[in-house]
Amino acid sequence: MRERGLPSLNQARAERRRALVLGKVSIRAMPPHFWLWALVGMAAFGVIYWRVAEGKLEGRKSAVMAKQRAVSVALGPKIQPFREQVEGWARELAADGVADFVAPGNGLKDLREAPGVYLRLRRDNAKSPKQLRKAAQSSLLDGFTSCLFVSQTALQTQGAACRVTSECQPGQLCNEWNVCAAPPRPYNMRLAFRALRVLSTEWSDELNAAESELAVNGYDRDLDSVAKHDVPIAVEIMNKAKFVTLVIDEDPPGGLPQQPPDAGETAEQVLQRTPHFARIGIWDIATKAPLLRLRAEASAEFVALGSHAPTSAEAQAAQARQANSCALALAVREKISRAPESSPPAQPAAP
Predict the structure, then answer these.
(1) Are 120 and 281 in contact (CB under 8 A)?
(2) Cβ atoms 230, 191 nearer than 8 A
(3) What is the distance between the alpha carbons of residues 69 and 58, in angstroms, rounded to a whole number?
């Protein structure tokens, strides 16, 4: 039978009937060049978006770097010379051939109660400024400070949790326990080293390596917190401090005891609970004169009384660290108590 009408119209009618019956609509295939241009357009949009986002990220990094340079110029001279002085004393104390010494007179009579600064390091970490600055961020107030100094502040482990000092109340620091508390006595130099890290090249390198604006904003907040809170408090404390006390721990002759990978102790903690020798140095900040140098053994035994003896390995290790560190402090107190009250008067020259 001869088909009536135009073939194309008849085909369109048949397709519509089929779509109505089957509930489907036939879509003609798009020409290949359409998909090619669509792909090119999407790629071009992606490149442009990446360039814009990358430029915005680099601009944000540059702004934070400019702020870091301004902070370094404004606050660096107020605290960096003191840090460098402490680093020099630490390297001096860690050097070979340092003899025991205690200054005559009453220079140390106020040591236990006077404001001061404290830092404790392994001897192996005091060989270069870079090693020292990294290791200083692990220094803690410990059994040595508890047995040597009289603290007038509350427990440093009690307070609101924090990550940066800007989260704390005015006059408080986010301390080494990540707790808001009044500045400790003695002041842990670790806090100053941690604050000054934002002025270091390592911090700048980390900022430059940041891959998102969110990460850069985190570095910016860190810088603001240090500039507005940590450094001013550190400067105020150091201006009031009278003494710098350093402890340099020597590794035992056989090295540190081997620990399983999941022991959870740092090398410093293992060393402090192991009998070993340590060097203690005390300097007068005003005169920069050494007042005491001592090499003593950090070795003691903790004896529990009653039914409260520790059973966990973690508690036993902590008590061993406290006992050894306290033994060092008692050696310092004994050395000070035996110091001559004053230098003997000069004898007249023989005629």
Answers:
(1) no
(2) yes
(3) 16
Strands, E assignment, the chain: 101-102, 116-122, 173-174, 180-181, 187-188, 243-249, 276-284, 290-298
Going by C-alpha positions, the residue among 222, 227, 229 that lies closest to residue 180 is 229
Q: At what angle do helices 32-94 and 129-136 cross, to 10 degrees?
A: 100
251-267 pLDDT, tens digit each: 999 888 887 766 678 88
94-106 CB burial, b ≥16 within 10 A, e <16: beeebeeebbeee
Give the residue ranges of the chain where pLDDT is below 70.
1-9, 16, 18-30, 34-35, 49-50, 52-53, 152-154, 261-263, 305-310, 342-351
Kindly calculate the radius of gyration of the chain based on its CA atoms and give it in whole angstroms. Answer: 34
The pTM of the full predicted model, rounded to 2 decimals, is: 0.76
State how beta strands 187-188 and 173-174 pair.
Answer: unpaired
Instruction: Kindly report, residue by residue over 210-262, the tens digit of the pLDDT.
Output: 888 888 888 898 888 888 888 888 888 888 899 999 999 999 998 888 877 66
Q: Tell how strand 243-249 and strand 116-122 pair up.
A: parallel
